[in-house]
Automatic annotation (TrEMBL):
GO terms for molecular function: transferase activity. Keywords: Transferase. GO terms for biological process: iron-sulfur cluster assembly. SUPFAM superfamilies: Folate-binding domain (SSF103025). The keyword Transferase applies. This is CAF17 transferase. GO terms for cellular component: mitochondrial matrix. PANTHER family: TRANSFERASE CAF17, MITOCHONDRIAL-RELATED. It comes from the Eukaryota.
Length: 195
């Protein structure tokens, strides 16, 4: 899937100022929560708004989904992005939930409340870092993401760029050659302009 060219003037100026930059990478202040186990997708299915079983389906399963966590009455509590870390249906399902770092404990407690007899483990992932990546002049990213745990288009919209999950302290220039680390405020301005 190709990413559309950057539309926010501030990000375009930033990328032009970084001659030769393949991408602008922005560190996000969001947290990751791991849900692992044979029943991970079935467990999350009734608690989130999107069809989580897509993540563990055979064939052309998406690597990421956008969803909202629901309470008992069906009201939205938190917005989350789900990522599939397992490579095939033969592997044990491992799903990451991206959420705002201020609500990590609340989401973890919320999930554990409904975990009754499910064979899943729910744990935060403090050893992982999350990045927003906006491609530079080219419309796609170089495929040198060996150190990346996951590099996928943002599931919300094409103009939001890509999401990168890597080990904390990983060298971004090795993951995406020619990339530059940008100010997260530039990314937020880009997000707000997209609506």
């Amino acid at each position: 899937m190709l990413v559309r060219a950057i539309t926010a003037p501030g990000l375009r100026r930033w990328c032009r100022g970084q001659r030769g930059a393949a991408a602008a990478c922005f560190p996000l202040g969001r947290a990751l929560l791991g849900v692992r186990g044979a029943e991970a997708a079935a467990f999350l299915q009734g608690l989130l708004t999107n069809d989580v079983t897509q993540l563990v389906a055979e064939g052309d399963a998406p690597p990421a989904l956008y969803a909202h966590a629901l309470n008992v009455q069906g009201r939205c509590l938190y917005d989350v992005i789900l990522y599939r870390l397992h490579g095939s249906t033969a592997e044990e399902p491992h799903i990451l939930l991206e959420c705002d770092s201020s609500v990590l404990d609340s989401i973890q407690q919320h999930l554990k409340l409904y975990k009754i007899r499910r064979k899943v483990t729910i744990s935060p992932c403090p050893d992982l870092s999350l990045w927003a990546v906006i491609p530079g002049d080219s419309s796609s990213l170089p495929k040198c993401a060996d150190q990346a745990l996951l590099l996928t288009p943002d599931p919300r919209a094409e103009v939001m760029g890509w999401r990168l999950i890597a080990k904390k302290g990983a060298n971004l220039s090795e993951i995406i050659p020619g990339s530059q680390v940008g100010d997260v405020q530039d990314y937020h301005r880009h997000r707000y302009k997209q609506g």
